């Protein structure tokens, strides 16, 4: 039987053509590559497609962004099913590995174990779990608190034990820097690595010196969070590379860019009575169609239905 459509046309139209297992291997290889892995946050599959098209190494799904997109604050109100559904749809949109924010694991250690299994099923390449109390708060706000390190070790132990694909990356985030100090955060990071964490994410480090100090003290891959309006200096990729970091996320950047543009545009329409003055600031329809591979879908559809039934009137 001969296919009516080329494999190149169909590949990746309806889901990623790269398996979840291969994406997880790519994520691990990237962390070991010596090249800083840059993972902008995506709040939708379309944003993920743009991240891939521009040439970044991976995609990040922020819990704060997912909550905000649902009209909720980042205080632990989202559910595992919501995170898995959105994370999975974003992961399927590109050939890149996707790391997702799994908050505190949505409950006790057994819940963290179920979280890992569910996110594996959804096609994610990895997730991070944090040591805040449940319900959590945004990592750059005051008033948050952390569980005892031993409780987080149990949370991580359960998550690691539930992992079926050994390449699924389990990242441990600690929020202890702003609460217990830098030395305590370093001690926690070492304990979390001993518990099986593949990657360490230390929230709210202040400046390049603290990032460098953390790198010298912790001998596992490290992730930096470059979020705007927070407690950390906004360091460049070159600066983070210079102190030996393995990955960086820009978790809320795309949402903030988009919402800033949306608000300015809506206010302009309200004031001017037309959107005509905004045209030059919009993504053109042709660019949107390019990202969505409109022509490939059209070709695929035409190939499928370009036939006649024998004996039918012409």
Automatic annotation (TrEMBL):
Superkingdom to which the source organism belongs: Bacteria
InterPro entries xrefs: ICL/PEPM (IPR039556), Isocitrate_lyase_ph_CS (IPR018523), PrpB (IPR012695), Pyrv/PenolPyrv_kinase-like_dom (IPR015813), Pyrv_kinase-like_dom_sf (IPR040442)
Coiled-coil annotated residue ranges, if any: none
Claim: Lyase is one of the keywords in the record: yes
Recorded catalytic activity of this chain's protein: (2S,3R)-3-hydroxybutane-1,2,3-tricarboxylate = pyruvate + succinate
EC number: 4.1.3.30
Molecular-function annotations in GO: metal ion binding; methylisocitrate lyase activity
Transmembrane segments: none
Stored Pfam families: PEP_mutase (PF13714)
CDD domains: ICL_PEPM (cd00377)
One GO BP: propionate catabolic process, 2-methylcitrate cycle
Role of this protein: Catalyzes the thermodynamically favored C-C bond cleavage of (2R,3S)-2-methylisocitrate to yield pyruvate and succinate.
NCBIfam families reported in the protein's UniProt record: prpB
Similarity-based family: Belongs to the isocitrate lyase/PEP mutase superfamily. Methylisocitrate lyase family.
Name of this chain's protein: Methylisocitrate lyase
Gene from which this protein is expressed: prpB
């Amino acid at each position: 039987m001969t296919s009516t459509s080329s494999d190149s046309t169909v590949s990746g139209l309806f889901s990623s053509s790269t398996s979840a297992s291969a994406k997880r291997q790519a994520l691990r290889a990237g962390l070991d590559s010596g090249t800083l892995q840059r993972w902008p946050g995506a709040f939708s599959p379309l944003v993920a497609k743009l991240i891939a098209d521009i040439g970044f190494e991976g995609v990040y799904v922020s819990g704060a962004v997912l909550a905000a997109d649902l009209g909720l604050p980042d205080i632990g109100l989202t559910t595992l099913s919501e995170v898995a559904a959105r994370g999975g749809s974003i992961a399927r949109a590109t050939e890149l590995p996707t790391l997702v924010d799994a908050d505190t694991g949505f409950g006790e250690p057994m819940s963290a174990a179920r979280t890992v299994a569910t996110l594996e099923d959804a096609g994610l390449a990895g997730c991070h779990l944090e040591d805040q109390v449940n319900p959590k708060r945004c990592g750059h706000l005051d008033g948050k608190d952390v569980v005892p390190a031993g409780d987080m070790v149990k949370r991580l132990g359960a998550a690691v034990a539930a992992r079926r694909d050994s390449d699924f990356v389990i990242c441990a985030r600690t929020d202890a820097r702003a609460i217990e100090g830098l030395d305590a955060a370093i001690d926690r990071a070492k304990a979390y690595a001993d518990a099986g964490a593949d990657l360490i994410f230390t929230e709210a480090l202040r400046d390049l010196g603290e990032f460098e100090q953390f790198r010298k003290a912790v001998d596992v891959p490290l992730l930096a969070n470059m979020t705007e309006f927070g407690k950390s200096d906004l360091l460049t990729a070159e600066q983070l590379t210079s102190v030996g970091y393995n990955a960086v996320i820009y978790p809320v950047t795309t949402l903030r860019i988009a919402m800033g543009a949306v608000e300015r545009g809506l206010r302009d329409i309200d004031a001017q009575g037309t959107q005509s003055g905004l045209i030059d600031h919009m993504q053109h329809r042709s660019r949107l169609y390019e990202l969505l591979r409109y022509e490939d879908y059209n070709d695929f559809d035409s190939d499928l239905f370009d036939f006649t039934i024998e004996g039918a009137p012409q």
